[in-house]
Write a structure and sequence with these properties.
Largest sheet: 3 strands, parallel
Low-confidence stretches: 46-120
Pfam families: MFS_1
Strand order of the largest sheet: 2-1-5
InterPro entries: MFS, MFS_dom, MFS_trans_sf
CATH topology of one domain: Growth Hormone, Chain: A
Radius of gyration: 33 Å
Number of strands: 5
Strand content: under 5%
CATH class of one domain: Mainly Alpha
Keywords: Membrane, Transmembrane, Transmembrane helix, Transport
Structural class: mainly alpha
GO molecular function: transmembrane transporter activity
Subcellular location: Membrane
Helix content: 55-70%
């Protein structure tokens, strides 16, 4: 039953309105601006209608909040009933009172129900709520992910790494069975390759959704549905009965599963301070690049087995992803710092009963406009207006495209030219993977140099000092392309080990370019790093999806040596990029409106 205080800011409160209030079982607390007949009716029914007394003066046209009104009214001592306070401020002419009244009462009925559960004391507003804001208890707070134990960090890293590995494995494993898919569904090479390209296009689009979700609800809450959805669509690919379903499910498997590529690095950044982050990112890079190099080997042995076939490339990937999903549920604790504080605030509220305790993130909202601006509009704008971002991303996208192009090139060399049987012909990918591992080790040595320079600069990072490994890698990468192409085209004169060694140079160059490129972008665009990386991901994944589509026609029509020469020439043209920004990067940052406040 609502108890109301009515104040008319225009006109008067009529006798009919008072009757209507009483007919709706309203307890009238007070009236301001009532006509004589209305006041007479209230006096007549005072004993049954009034349970509150007016304390002090309630002036006409003065709007009162619930709490202010409660201060002015007190419950009669002889009343055992409890009513909610429902102030109705009548701002309409008297003719509109009736229609406004029912709306006012119905729109606040839920507050009446809540108030019935309260005691006589109303929860007064906190004058300075900031004192109840939850924060970390200093730099050594054990709840902060930076201060977690090594055992816990390792378990989280392994979980995030296995999840990313399952995605990268799925991106390339399907390619091993593409010929069988073509034969079963009578489609051409382009359609067979499309299964890989659509998957890569999918996880190129994923950051638009998964990035904001992980910021709003946490890494764990975004990763769990992503892993689960990836498992479902991967098994759907394996059991599909037509080529259309296969291609659609491949795209959605990449789109939904792509969260691991976005959230994985964010989890590492949440747990490791800047001086330790480089090592963690190097290991994560091995996992990301390792998947597309291990997948062709596993896929070839699976597809050549007459009892398995191409469908088992997806079944095996789905099983690995299911294991990763279980580990995510069991071991991936929340690492996003604001969400950790939200969990702390909830625990404190439950423990103390103090409703004023809150975490700042609980008051943070992200609109669709902001999501679009941060993940689509601004990244594209920055990509084509920022020279640093465009050129570094172009180089990064090129080497990423080569990674997926090698899924076609390596079998053409070792199976087509050297006549290795299926499965054995993919083993040279091991050489490329060894090159990635060597490159990651070299990156760690450069990381020590970067820390030393940063300490000498008052612990302020100099973005250009991220580039020396990229300089070295640019030569390794170009040399590897020429080496692989010109030695792999002469199987009758050159031993197969020679082009295999060339592929290791490609792998080493890949990791030496890829990781410093990402770190350089982050250090240049600190405040806008998320948008810059989103632009980088969009272009990089577009190259990764497009390169496999033209790989086979290019190598078959131009021959291996000339196709590799063309790619090597592009790689040579990219060599000046890290050298140029190492020398002129600071001047370029000074002219950028996205980096002006980070220039040192």
């Amino acid at each position: 039953m609502p108890a109301v205080f009515v104040s008319a800011s225009k006109g008067i409160i009529s006798h009919d309105l008072v009757k209507q209030l009483l007919e709706q079982d309203c307890k009238i607390l007070g009236l301001v601006g009532c006509d004589e007949e209305g006041e007479a009716l209230v006096r007549e029914l005072r004993s049954s209608s009034f349970v509150y007394e007016v304390v002090g003066s309630l002036h006409k046209n003065k709007l009162c909040t619930d709490v202010q009104l409660h201060d002015k009214l007190r419950l009669s001592e002889d009343s055992s009933e409890k009513y909610s306070i429902l102030p109705i401020i009548m701002n309409l002419d008297s003719a509109d009172y009736s229609s406004s009244l029912s709306t006012s009462i119905s729109s606040t009925s839920h507050r009446e129900q809540n108030a019935k559960n309260l005691e006589k004391e109303y929860p007064f507003p906190v004058e300075d709520r900031s004192i109840y804001a939850v924060s970390y208890n200093g730099q050594d707070d054990p709840a902060h992910p930076f201060n977690w134990s090594s055992k816990k960090k390792i378990s989280v890293c392994l979980t995030a790494g296995l999840t990313a590995f399952s995605i990268s494995l799925g991106s390339a494993m399907f390619a091993a069975g593409s010929l069988q898919v073509q034969e079963e569904y009578l489609v051409g090479d382009t359609v067979g390759t499309l299964g890989t390209s659509l998957f890569v296009f999918g996880f190129a689009s994923g950051p638009v959704i998964w990035g904001p979700l992980s910021e709003l609800f946490g890494r764990r809450m975004a990763m769990i549905p992503s892993c689960f959805g990836y498992v479902l669509f991967t098994f759907a690919v394996a059991s599909a009965q037509d080529i259309q379903t296969i291609m659609i499910c491949r795209f959605f498997a990449g789109f939904i599963g792509g969260a691991a590529f976005v959230i994985g690095p964010a989890v590492l950044a949440d747990m490791f301070r800047a001086e330790k982050r480089g090592e963690a990112m190097s290991l994560f890079g091995i996992v990301v690049f390792g998947g597309p190099m291990v997948a062709p080997i596993l896929g070839a042995f699976i597809t050549k087995n007459p009892h398995l076939g191409w469908r088992w490339t997806s079944y095996i990937t789905g099983l690995v992803a299911a294991l990763a999903n279980i580990l995510v549920i069991l071991f991936l604790d929340e690492t996003h710092h604001p969400i950790v504080l939200v969990q702390k605030a909830v625990e404190l509220r439950n423990r103390t009963g103090n409703w004023a305790i809150f975490a700042p993130h609980e008051e943070f909202n992200l609109t669709l406009k902001e999501i679009a601006e941060k993940n689509i509009t601004r990244p594209i704008y920055m990509l084509f207006t920022e020279p640093i971002l465009f050129l570094v991303t172009l180089y990064n996208a090129f080497i990423y495209g080569i990674l997926y192009l090698m899924l076609t090139a390596m079998p053409l060399i070792f199976v087509g030219k050297y006549h290795f049987r299926a499965g054995v012909g993919e083993l040279p990918y091991v050489s490329m993977l060894l090159g990635v591992i060597v490159g990651a080790i070299i990156t760690l040595f450069f990381e020590k140099r970067f820390k030393r320079i940063m300490r000498a600069n008052n612990n302020i990072a100099i973005p250009e000092e991220r580039l020396p490994p990229m300089m070295v890698g640019s030569f390794f990468f170009a040399i590897g392309l020429f080496w692989l192409g010109w030695t792999g085209d002469y199987p009758d004169k050159i031993h197969w080990m020679v082009p295999t060694v060339g592929s290791s140079f490609i792998g080493c160059g890949l990791i030496l370019i890829f990781l410093p490129c990402l770190n350089y972008i982050i250090d240049c665009y600190l405040v806008f790093a998320a948008s810059a990386l989103a632009g980088n991901t969009l272009l990089r994944s577009a190259f990764g999806a497009a390169f496999p589509l033209f790989a086979r026609p290019m190598f078959e029509n131009m021959h291996i040596k000339w196709a590799s020469t063309l790619l090597g020439a592009f790689a040579v043209l990219m060599i000046p990029v890290p050298f140029g920004f190492y020398k002129y990067g600071k001047k370029a940052r000074q002219k950028s409106k996205f980096t002006f406040d980070q220039v040192i």
